[in-house]
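Consider a concrete sample entry:
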Amino acid sequence: MGFKMGIVGLPNVGKSTLFNALTKTAAAQAANFPFCTIEPNVGDVAVPDARLQTLADIAKSREVIPTRMTFVDIAGLVRGASKGEGLGNQFLANIREVDAIAHVLRCFEDDDVTHVEGKIDPVADAETIETELMIADMDSIEKRLANLSRKIRGGEKDAVDQDRLLRRALEALEAGKPARTVEVAEEDRKQWRMLQLLTSKPVLYVCNVEESSAGSGNALSQRVAEMAAAQGAAQVVISAQIEEEISQLDAEEAEMFLSEMGLEEPGLDRLIRAGYQLLGLHTYFTVGPKETRAWTIPVGTLAPQAAGVIHGDFERGFIRAETVAYDDYITHKGEAGAKEAGKFRVEGKSYEVKDGDVLHFLFNA
């Protein structure tokens, strides 16, 4: 299981440059004018995880297969998008289809790159987009509430639940708060997700800084960090320009480049990890001589559902899971050593899979 993250922001903040770096392609045209991205570009990227190769080396696997994430480069939004300005309607429709939003904010000064608002203020930029999404949500909710009234009179339970949740969202929005601030009971979560409210999406603020600030950020990114902390949101600092340069290098060249820049790892690695944490995801592994492979699941997933990520038959016919924790697998040089050390476990249907578990599933076909 992966997830789909939409890259959004005002025009000319570095969205397409970041997308190019993520996908190592030039599929998204990066140009110094608004709306250079018209159709959303979609790219699957491997999730970096050093544990994969370590496991593969011990198991002498012939192939290493990382889990993957999908990124969507969405057209730049401008003030008035909720009313159809610019490419607003298309932008809003594309956001509905993603699981989370990577909101790229311009945190660098450059007279050669125009800013659609005429000034560099990442907090104001964030507020512009949030406001447009909130207005769009309010318009959508008011129309949906009107359409639900007939179904409610007919006694449809789903309609009653939708009405109740939509009114809670509208109350928050009218108070100037996005829908993601609404506390939703566990039994309502599925229905809540089906509402597809734009401001219910989790947000990761991506501060795009100049090269010299890639390691520690700058005054502009610090303002974003303070805003994110106040909202309980996630934030990461990267230089999209550096990331695009790194994406064109081989592994050895990239390592030398990072060292010269005083960076320990690519910013994209931090971005992907932040995305994982944002959606409450983690990874388990299957390991053998044929392949070592990573699989993504939500935190709290039980063993049968984790097995179902590989194949539906694994979940339907689940018998048990055999597992070794990652650290134990490494310490004892593989499954056989872990068994000898008493670190090999057999778990049933109620087992909650942990990050880094090395798993084998037994099932009835």
Remarks:
- The first strand starts at residue 4 and ends at 8.
- Residues 25-38 have pLDDT under 50 and may be disordered.
